[in-house]
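A quick aside before the break. I want you to see a complete sequence-to-structure record at least once, exactly as it would be stored in a machine-readable document. Don't worry about memorizing anything.
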Amino acid sequence: MQADVLLGLQWGDEGKGKIVDVLTPKYDIIARFQGGPNAGHTLEFEGIKHVLHTIPSGIFREGIINLVGNGVVIDPIIFKKEIDALEVMNVPVIDRLLISKKAHLILPTHRVLDAASEAAKGKLKIGSTLKGIGPTYMDKTGRNGLRVGDILSPNFREKYSQLVEKHKRLLSM
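That is the input. The structure line, written in C-alpha cells, reads:
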C-alpha cells in the first residue's frame, strides 16, 4: 500500500488544508494524525467559506474516507459546531468521517490549565491559543486523559470527574 504524507513545517498558515483538498481526489483516505483545534483550514467552494479545525479537508469529497486519528486532541464543543456547519451545507459527515476511539478529549478544565500556565510564564509566555491542547497532551502522555472511546464506558462520568478533580488540585497549587 502506498501512502503520502503532507506535513506543515511552520506553526501553521502554510495552506495545508487547501493543498489536501486539491490532492484529495487521488486518494481513498484522508487522515489527520495529530494536533488540535487551535488553527483552522479554510476552504472555499462556490463562494462559500468553510473553516475546519479538526475534521480533515477531504470531507467535502464524495467517496473519500476522512479519519481523525489517535494523535488528535478533540474539543467536543468545537467539534460539534464544525459538524453542525457541515451538515447545514448537506455534507454527509456520518458517511465520510471515522474517529479513533483513542483520540483524546479536551475538557473545559484543560483550557483553564492552559490559561493558568500561560499567565504564570509572565514575559516568557509562549503565545498559547488557550484551547487546552498542551494540557490535554500532558494528560495523554501521562496516561490519565479521557479518550473518545471512554464516552462509551459505563464509568465515563467517574473517569471524567476524577480528571476534573485532578485539574482542580493542580490549579489550587
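Two observations worth writing down. The longest helix spans residues 156-171. The two ends are 50 Å apart (CA to CA). We'll return to this after the break.
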